Amino acid sequence: MSRKPIKKNSLRGPRKSIFADKQVRIIIFICLILVALYLATVTSIVVLGYLGNDTPRTLQEQELTLAQTEYEKGEAGPENIKDYAVALAKTGQGRRAHQILDAGDKANIEDPERQWLLLGRAQVYLIQSNYKNALQQVDKLQKALAAQYKKDIEQQKGTGNPTYLTAEGGRGDNYFTALTVKAEAYEGLKDYKNALKAINEYLSFNPTAADMLEWRGDILFKTGDNTGALESYKEAKKYNPGVSELEKKISKLSTQGQNGK
């Protein structure tokens, strides 16, 4: 006798889907709602925190906000214009920075005050790593300062009253800032000789400037003058003790000296 083939799963009956269970459907529905709420929360944080929030998030943005506020008051002096242009350049808005300085050049600003615009231009070029143009602007600034100093000396002879520049020996506030721009630009060009010259000029008037002494040490170290670098670091430590980074540099060079390296 022939046997009839047995059908598979003939005893189990048709398989039911898990979605046929009401409780399973409820659990899945709740999970989907929770996922949707999570995604909505994350999206709102991103949008409000990064796109819709006007609060400055970095130090550079804070500087830009403050400088822009002063500039937009409508009574911005050349120093305010310079600060705003530099703040723009720091946040990657170099083209806008030059436009602000161009507008300042066209404004009715007295010649001595225009020196701030020259400094601003130098600083913007420096931020853009355009070292040669930065140095050109510093050169113009230094010549302008020298010319103004000469005029002020004549004025003092006539009135008997010293001017700001004559009282400062021809070195205004922007004189020393210009020297730091000059040193940094030369360092960027790897012209360490002239970078050191600018730093040493600064230190000749401000011998206790610890940051400049440390900077001089850094450049001397780059030139291979470890002895000179160590001396500069130790000098900087006198006026700014307890700085961990400076201590590390001194320790490193001292160890190298002991090992004869």
Keywords:
12 helices
Descriptive overview:
The chain has 12 helices and no strands. By secondary structure, the chain is mainly α. Helix 2 runs antiparallel to helix 3 (78-90), helix 5 runs parallel beside helix 8 and helix 11 packs antiparallel against helix 12 (244-258). The protein is flat and about 100 Å long. The protein starts with 21 loop residues before the first helix and ends with a helix.
How would you sum up this structure in a few lines?
This protein is mostly helical and 261 residues long. Helices cover 72% and strands 0% of the residues.
Shape annotation: flat
How far apart are the termini?
Answer: 103 Å
Radius of gyration from the alpha-carbon trace, in angstroms: 33 Å
Work out the helix count: 12
In helices, the fraction of residues equals: over 70%
β content, as a range?
A: under 5%
Spans of at least 5 consecutive residues with low confidence? 6-13, 46-53
Helix and strand element order: HHHHHHHHHHHH
Number of strands: 0
Major β-sheet annotation: none
Mean pLDDT: 84
What is the SS-derived class? mainly alpha
Give the helix/strand layout:
Elements: H1 22-51, H2 59-71, H3 78-90, H4 94-106, H5 115-127, H6 131-159, H7 164-167, H8 173-188, H9 192-205, H10 210-222, H11 226-239, H12 244-258
Helix pairs in contact: 2-3, 3-4, 3-5, 4-5, 5-6, 5-8, 6-8, 8-9, 9-10, 10-11, 11-12
